[in-house]
Amino acid sequence: MMKAVQVLSLTLLSVLAVSAMTFHSGRCPTPPVQQSFDPTRYMGRWYEIQKIPNAFQLGECAQATYTLKDGVVLVLNEELLADGTVSRIEGTAKAKDPSEPAKLEVSFFEGVPPGNYWVLSTDYDNYTLVYGCTNYLNLFHVEFAWILSRGRSLPKETLVELQDILISNGIKIDTLTSTDQELKRCSAMPQ
To answer: Who has the most CB within 10 Å: 10, 34, 40, 45?
Structure first.
């Protein structure tokens, strides 16, 4: 049994390393989320400013549009691929526990477990900081983080404040990358 777990762990680690995901030993951190989160104010378009790289986002000019319908958030994620095409994926998100509305679970594929989408901080009008994490065999975890903005940029001071929230909760930001949101490059994106 132990040998099987070791082989599985090494295989999974190899896949994650190749796919540019960030993994860490131990279980996921559980940072505090936005207090009194208001999903209605959160709806609309958000532009990705920075992220921890992952295997499912390959382009630039990434943006997300959220719409609330019957208590479920409809998610539309779009990005510009290197060949100039716009990649789109639709999903849904909802709070697992209504008493914690900032802890959402997002799903894009039927039959695949949902991912965490925790809003750690937002002012609704300018920025949001989102965190997600998945535990594997209680031995290691893979983290996701996004800094989003209502516009295509954020002041450096705001970025530093949001990065500090991640750091103060034990979330490493050494792999955080900036997303190209230059208007000329992103002109093919839906407005």
So the answer is: 34
